Amino acid sequence: MTGEGAVLLDELRSAIGKYVVLPNEEALTAVTLWVAATHIQTALQHAPRLAVMSPTKGCGKSRVLDVLYETVHDPMMTVNTSPAVIFRTIGKIPPTLLVDEADTIFSPKASGDSEILRGLLNAGHQRNRPAWRISGPEHKPTPFPTFALAAIAGIGDLPDTITDRSVVLRMQKRKPGEKVAPFRTRYAAPELNVLRDRLAAWLGPLRGTAARMVPAMPVEDRAADTWEPLVIIADLAGGHWPAGARAACLAMTRHEAVQDEQTSLKTRLLRDIHRIFERANNPEALPTLDLVAALIQDADAPWAEHGAKGMNAYHLGNLLRDFGIGPANYRFDQGRQAKAYLRNRFLDAWARHCPDLIQAEALPEPAHGTSPARPTQRKPLMDGPAGSLPVGPPGGPAGPKRTL
User: Fold this and answer.
1) What tens digit of pLDDT does each residue of 167-220 get?
2) How many Å is the Cα radius of gyration of the chain?
3) Mean of the per-residue pLDDT values of the chain
4) How far apart are CA 155 and CA 19, in angstroms?
5) In terms of DSSP bridges, do strands 131-135 and 49-54 run parallel, antiparallel, or are they unpaired?
6) CA distance 244 to 231
7) d(CA 257, CA 219)
């Protein structure tokens, strides 16, 4: 016989799925359990982050936060806040942090507060990791709690240290035919608030039991720490939820392992291309075929064995597509025209994914009376065939629009 908890989680799962289209059934299960876990935060040893990431606008990440706001324990919604505010908000009974537009918080141009906030979110994944600050008129060292469940939404990837502590939702635009109910707070909130209150009533008396539970986990290490609160909720509910939670855990952690491998490969590619441009004295552009040949010739790199017969122009374009980088028609010396990759198209990706390379490019000022040498190049075709691109700063008026 299905118990109260299992029935309640089933209803919550249906309500969440009514308003948002999540990547798969496992993701819907995970979000349902995460919402429930916010109501027993004081019994948990770890506070999993819910990373809601989308490649572009319009994928539903903000709608996920809207639904969470009406169902989690004591939501604290923020778009642009200071670490000091969060330090002073988290207490013995912490709120549930809901952070939107995280891509602006963690962008290369963000203020120094972004690193403090990143550290706070990392430390708050585990209990008893306070942040120490000088506080009060006597300037005494004071520990501020950091432990709180947090959902963090943004366009593009979040910092690795955060995703490593997260249940990750990789949102996509809805397919034709995929429908959701319109979310209007006036009508949706009462229904969701009833579920929120029922969750609190069900789980409140079970906090002591939850604190003592050591569930069998299908994963290890940090992944086990992150998913344990969700599995505890599932085991408390019973019915089909214990098996469903562990299946979701395995499927989603394996998917992220594949994503990590692909991300590492793409980051390696960015670094190798930076080195190739540097060896060529940083020209404005390199022919696609020359760039591919240089990648393959690196004996220490994986490109000679990439694909069935090694790296080719198609593979290169496919790997760089997620960074918004593609080839353009370009006119080199002596009027030669060829498909090429423009160096300035890589600047944004290098700044985001390989910031140490950009910092290393800072050179000393030239000696008085001299000027730095500039390689002789021709300008890109301005009126060439389709696909021609002018030189310009990434995302600027003369460059392609970067899709986040």
Assistant:
1) 999 999 888 888 899 999 999 999 999 999 999 999 999 999 999 999 999 999
2) 25
3) 86
4) 20
5) unpaired
6) 9
7) 12
Indicate the DSSP class of residue 128: S
Question: How is residue 337 annotated by DSSP?
Answer: E
Closest to 20 in 3D by CA, of 149, 199, 188, 148: 188
Q: Could you tell me if 15 and 192 are in contact, meaning their C-beta atoms sit under 8 angstroms apart?
A: yes
Q: Which residue shows structure tokens 């670094």?
A: 271
Sheet hosting strand 166-170, strand order edge to edge: 75-78, 96-99, 150-155, 49-54, 166-170
Nearest CA-CA partner of 58 in 236, 196, 178: 178
Q: Where do we find the tokens 């344990």?
A: 228
What does the alpha-carbon distance between residue 75 and residue 95 come to, in Å, rounded to a whole number? 6
Task: Tell me, rounded to whole angstroms, the distance of Cα 86 from its chain centroid.
Answer: 21
Pick the closest to residue 390 from 353, 352, 342 (CA basis). 342
Q: What are phi and psi of 256, to 5 degrees?
A: -70, -30
Q: Is 321 helix (H, G, I), strand (E, B) or coil?
A: helix
Amino acid at 28: L
Confidence category of residue 364, pLDDT binned at 50, 70, 90: very low
Alpha-carbon distance of 252 to 34, in angstroms, equals 14
How large is the average pLDDT for residues 305-312? 88
CA 5 from chain center: how many Å?
31
Comparison of pLDDT for 106 and 46, the residue scoring more: 46
Q: Are strands 49-54 and 150-155 parallel, antiparallel or unpaired?
A: parallel
Is the confidence at residue 399, as pLDDT, over 80? no
* Three-state DSSP class for residue 49: strand
CB 333 within 8 A of CB 376: yes
- Give the span between the Cα atoms of 245 and 233, in whole angstroms: 9
What is the C-alpha to C-alpha distance for residues 286 and 277, in angstroms, rounded to an integer? 8
356 with 367: CB under 8 angstroms?
Answer: no
pTM: 0.71
CA contacts within 13 A on the Cβ side of 153? 24
Between strands 75-78 and 49-54, the pairing is unpaired
**Residue 402 banded pLDDT, cuts 50, 70, 90:** very low
DSSP 351-393: HHH-HHHHHHT--PPPPTT--------PPBPSS-STT------
Residue 366 exposed, middle or buried by CB count within 10 Å (0-12, 13-18, 19+): exposed
Cα(170)–Cα(181) distance, integer angstroms: 21
E-strand ranges in 131-222 read 131-135, 140-144, 150-155, 166-170
| pLDDT above 70: residue 2 | no
